[in-house]
Design a protein that fits this description.
The protein is of the alpha+beta class. The protein has helices at residues 24-50, 60-67, 76-87, 95-103, 134-144, and strands at residues 112-116, 121-127, 150-156, 158-181, 184-207.
Amino acid sequence: MSDFIRWKEVDILAYLPFFIAKDMEFKAISDADSREHERIRLLLMELLKQDNIQTATYALDKWEEFVGIKPKNNSFKDRRNRVIAKLNTSNSSTKEYLETIANKFISDKSAEIITYNEKYMMDLSFTKDMCDNIDDLHSAIEEFKPAHIGYIVWEEQTVAQNLIITSLVGAQEETVIGMIKPLENIEIEHSIYYGNAVGIEEVTMIGG
């Protein structure tokens, strides 16, 4: 593609001897030709974009018709994702394949599928508020999952809990010396008292 078309603005005089531009009539004609060549160049570049589903815009309806998708009035990004998903379809819709389809609509690519074959069910989970278009996600899953499999969608939110325990310990020591008679039978009483103040704080952090 890089050899098919030039990528810089057209200027015919750039390919001619510089002194020719000093002729005002010839320069005017060359400038007019350059503008027309530039218009055609831009049209060709836009046409080439339509041949690639990643960059297609006004030709998306042709892509949707080609893969058999009913057009929806959504953004270019959503419409491209639906076409790409259809182009990538296979006869076997595996768990991994359905996760790939789902992640086309999930910004952080967190989509995960858990299957329950005995119940003919599956769970589709992803991070809360990360889905670009929940309706198109449902449509894509419905289109590519096996017809007999039901599913539940879960939006997950991270919850972190911290338990903070603080403690303040105080100690007091007391010694009592007493005498029954002077210089005889000295009696010593030694006591230690402890006090403890405990504070507990529970912190809950909720994040997407």
